[in-house]
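re: that chain from earlier
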Amino acid sequence: MNRKRIERLIPEAMGQIKTKLLDKGKVPKIYDGYIAAFGPSVISSGLLQCVKFYEGDAKRKKVTQIFYNLLKTERQDCDENSLDAFRKKTNTMPTLVSAGKSSISPSPASSPCVPLSLQTIPTMRQRGREMKIRKISREEAIQDNRRRLQKHSKRNALSIKEQKSSSKSFSSSPIGNIGREFYMSPSYGKKLIDKNVSQLLKTAQKYLAITHTKTFMLETLYPGLLIGAGYAHPKLKENNDDFQLGFFFDHTTGLPVIPGSSIKGMLRALLPIDGDVDSKRAYVKELYEWDDAFIDDLCNCFEDGKTIFYDAYIVSTNDEKGRIFAEDYVTSHFSDEPMGMFKEPNPVRFIKIRPGVSFQFQFGTDDEKVVDAFKQLLIDHGVGAKTNVGYGMFQEN
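^ sequence. v structure.
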């Protein structure tokens, strides 16, 4: 880019801005972004695509008209109606964009509007002179750097101190990230069994609830619900009562959720989409008395974009103390001796969602019959791990 050409085009750019963008004596802030993004858009997408995008909106179109007029000023041989001529001048665009950005850059004044007086915008040469005047000695530069480092060190130390003072222990805090407690605290989730999460459930619902969806509520049955048991969970050195199976938590709220992908996979596995299609079709047809047309409608829901399967989140618990977790054990036995299946028991403690916890399921579809069918499939077959032994089963709330 040529600085002299930029300086020469700044007055012309300011004139164009004053003519086309000025509104009630001010330049709307939205044009700052339009002008600043024009150059990167040309580089990433190409000139034609960028111009086509800007021409599609009345406000953005004003920006392309300004650059077009600057281009005509820079290259007088440009035909007004020739897009090819505009395309051939791509090597001039960096200069034009720099001139446009310089002409609309805010001044040191606190006025919210962009000043349109050329005298208030220093040229490149004026800035260079100021830099020369402000030359300092090497010792002064070293002292200045030391002051900056001390300032940043104090700021960082204060930030760490504030974090420590503001953070409370998980057991005493009314709201805490349960997922972080389970995977990263020194106790690795041992305190979660007695944790009251009533307040956290109310706060988290506004983050997890999706508007304009079809929803229904189901309640967990005994023995409970397991989600994410395949995740690795750290083991403590004193491993007698540590949770040895993982669990799935929402990253933002820290609450356990049933991922939409798990719900979609479970429902898809029951319908005649993959595998033994004929047997599955006969099964759901006999069990639910659905006709072939409706079964096909259910199968079509799993095509891209037809139905969105959102995460199911907890809305309430029937526990008087506001608890949603409980503990359970699975005990494996192994020995090479005769009757070894009953020897050397190895109890494995794990965490689960307790019975009586209500989940809100939500689907991005307008078909009420499809949602009712999904609801019935979830009640009859459950979701999550160990469904063959009773986990993951629901009833209507």
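The chain has three domains: 3-133, 136-167, 178-396.
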